[in-house]
């Protein structure tokens, strides 16, 4: 009887987590569009773009509206992690991709290919399958238990790897390839985001236990998690703004979903061991659901600029495509190349004239 009560309580917690995660996806999907609109308005008024390192968008009320919308969505997502495991909540972010694609079509005028509808349907199917075979949350009785999980040698090695690789991207890859390869900015957001999710779940568990009578919010472990999340979110927002300012909204949200999901599921497997005590069948269907979501997201992003028709969409998906650049950035690069060529020609002409003068002086 006790086992049945615990199973029902776990199922109810999962249901709450799923509802919160889906509502969070809608808010976050809308926030992508509103923030993008604010970034565009900032550039139109003569401000420096986020991709160029500018922060003029901070003076745009529309951008702050998008930020508040994202905070609302992330708050719902934060509460969802208190009720359901990260391996369930994070992949449900596919709904964010579908929502942002639909909103971008109506509010930003970005095209959505007919194959994009198939991508949205795949994301829906993957979400339903994932919810059906979701793992139950492992019981946690204190925030100290969460801290002990974070202090495992394997997870500490993962944290060191993430921080080292992120620093390499920030100081090595981002200055050279950030404006031409969307994965650079998105990888920074995703890897740092996986660490913030682990801490967010710890804060959520502390809040849930506090509401049940066991005060966990005043403990130093909880305070450390809060500070850690603040630093991670600041980094994520900076590079997410750079990505949104440089690339197509659907592309950013799609690639971000895949990277963020993979990083977060990996971190959750290492720290919380969400897949322990599960049947092979449940694990199989969770993997299938994740792959279906990734396929749906790939179709949404891969057909965004292809010609109308399913055949053209399939050709776009199967062909290797170059990363999208902003027109003004491409124009600036072309101008730089032209200036460099002219300078080289002038140097050659000057060098030729100097050599002729030297030969004449010899004679």
From TrEMBL:
Protein topology in the membrane: Multi-pass membrane protein
UniProt GO cellular component terms: membrane
Keywords from the named record: Membrane, Transmembrane, Transmembrane helix
InterPro entries xref list: EmrE-like, Mg_trans_NIPA
Region (Disordered): 340-363
Transmembrane region(s): 15-34, 62-83, 89-108, 115-134, 154-173, 182-203, 223-240, 252-271, 283-301
Record has Hydrolase as a keyword: no
Basic and acidic residues bias (residue ranges): 354-363
Major place of residence: membrane
Localization: Membrane
Protein name (database record): Magnesium transporter
Species this chain originates from: Emiliania huxleyi (strain CCMP1516)
